[in-house]
Amino acid sequence: MKVIVAVSGGVDSVVLLDLLAKKKLEKFLNYRLPATNYQLVVAHFNHHIHHEADAQQKFVEQLAAKYRLPFFTKTSSRKIKSEAEARAARYEFLEKLLQKEKADIIALAHHADDQVETIFLNLIRGSGLAGAIGMTEFAGKKWRPFLEIPKAQIETYAKKAKLKFVTDPTNSDPNFSRNYLRAEILPKMRQLNPRLDEGILRFAKIARENLELTNLLAAEFLRRTENSQTIPLLEFGVLPPAVAKAVVREIYFQTVGNLQKIEERHIAEVLALARNSAGGKQKKFGELTFRTAKLAGQRVLSWK
Predict the structure, then answer these.
(1) pTM: predicted TM-score of the whole model, two decimal places
(2) Taking the CA of residue 142 as centre, how many other CA atoms within 13 Å lie in the half-sphere pointing to its CB?
(3) Spatial contact of 128 and 248, defined as CB atoms under 8 Å apart
(4) Angle at Cα 87 formed by Cα 204 and Cα 289, nearest 5°?
(5) Per-residue model confidence as pLDDT tens for the chain (304 residues)
(6) CB under 8 Å to 63, separation ≥6 — which residues?
(7) Helices and strands per DSSP (H, E), number in the chain
């Protein structure tokens, strides 16, 4: 299996690379992996958003040489203005490299602390159940083996293994919402509940289990209309709200290929559109437009 390892130079990605290169990841995670014989490629994206960016890139290049692994990098061609832009640019680079190198998967070093932060940020933005899940270990070609591992455990390994790493100066910049949450909000919440992280991760697991069920029911409903871009509103209208929302999400995902531009409020507006007895109305979200109309004597919801 050929794996692109995304390495920023920080402690998390350095530990991930070390464990993969030394074939110790399975022992560290304490569960059996589907494969352990990895062909590794090191990838680093230079966002060029701080004065140490080039030195950080050089560090990762030397790290790849230490493990005798191929190294690929790219520098951002435009000024990065937000966390979302940085993430999008990085993933674009990684996915293109995946295709170029004919690799199987991209290994990312997101850990349990990152997961807690992601869930909080999603909830703050007003996400629904899907956002409450946070990240998943496998998402398309992305693999996050550390997702249930706390950062403290990663740092302990780095210390014992005497691994060198770099610290990104932007990690302490409060202008980034994740940094502000990490430095100001979560420490205060942990004072109220020292087991906050454990509770949030348990909540995410319950949300994921419930979403899996509603997605299954939604897929079964849509299977009856898989050769058509319409669904009868009489049947759609009697679905439980959670399933109806999952139907809208699945329609959007199947048509567009992602859920990046549809939010919980958009889904609620589609449901309101479906309940409108007047018909002939429409709502556009992202790349998709939902319409209600009459077809063969019955009201339907269509999309394009």
Answers:
(1) 0.84
(2) 18
(3) no
(4) 75
(5) 999 999 999 999 999 999 999 999 999 999 888 877 899 999 999 988 777 889 999 999 999 999 999 999 998 877 776 777 888 889 999 999 999 999 999 999 999 999 999 999 988 887 778 789 999 999 999 999 999 999 999 999 999 999 999 988 777 777 788 999 999 999 999 999 999 999 999 999 999 999 999 999 999 999 877 667 889 998 999 999 999 999 998 998 888 888 777 888 888 889 988 887 665 678 888 888 998 888 877 888 888 8
(6) 7, 9, 14, 17, 42
(7) 13, 10
Q: Please say whether the dihedral angle defined by the alpha carbons of residues 270, 276, 279 and 281, taken in this order, is positive or negative.
A: negative
Domain assignments of the chain as residue spans, ordered by start: 2-181, 224-303
Q: Tell me the two tokens of residue 165.
A: 């790493």
CA distance linking residue 97 with residue 6, whole number of Å: 11
What letter does residue 172 receive in the DSSP assignment? G
286, two tokens: 């992202």
Tokens of 186: 């979560």
Instruction: For residue 230, report the phi and psi dihedrals to the nearest 5 degrees.
Output: -140, 150
**Cα angle for residues 37, 40, 44 (degrees, 5° grid):** 155
Phi (first) and psi of residue 21, to 5 degrees: -65, -35
Gap between the Cα atoms of 214 and 218, Å rounded: 6
Characterize the bridge pairing of strands 39-46 and 71-75: parallel
Residues 6+ apart with CB under 8 A from 260: 286
> Is domain 2-181 given the CATH code 3.40.30.10 in the classification?
no
Residue 212 CA to residue 208 CA, distance in Å, equals 6
Q: Tell me: domain 224-303, CATH 2.40.50.140, correct?
A: no
